[in-house]
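Curious: explain these tokens?
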Amino acid sequence: MKKAFQLICAVALISLMGSCGNKNQYVINGTVANMNGMTVYLISDEQDNPVDSAVVTDGTFTFTGTVEEPWMALVLGENLQMQLIVEPGTIAVTADSLGGTPLNDKFYAFNKNFDLSDIENQMEEYIPLYYSATSADERAKVEHVLDSLDAIHTTRSLEAFWTLYHENGDNLLGVMAMQSISQMGDFTYGEFDSIVKAASPIVAKN
């Protein structure tokens, strides 16, 4: 009885040690069509060289590793391009979907709902009219419409990224949102400095 109890305790201890050792592990499982034999790359947005690569077999590929802090990455192949967040857990990727971990679920939901196609389609209609205008007056009218559409595009983008920032100020999505806001927003240095100082540590340091 004593030996059996010791054996159970030893197995439990090994299992506990194993689970602790894997708490930072990530697994990225991809499913793609018509890419068998092709190579897919995992690329960090902060490095030029791929972090990892895998050959597609039977329509699937896998990346595994460990991560101390989440980081933005791109899964890139001939018929695949998906931005994701490398974080602990199992991440599922296809050509048009992403999920499986908390930040990637949020990231996919944001991208799915971030739809400015109505404005972008209108801008695409007016751009040829700008170049085909036969007079300065006609071109100026088209330019005015394009400027108005661009302003709407920027306003709606900023609203979406500000919402994303306020909902994720303590994680990498907040960092991504603030980077986008800083590129689109018309801030003075003092205004932006005040925003950064009021941000969470993870956003401020990035």
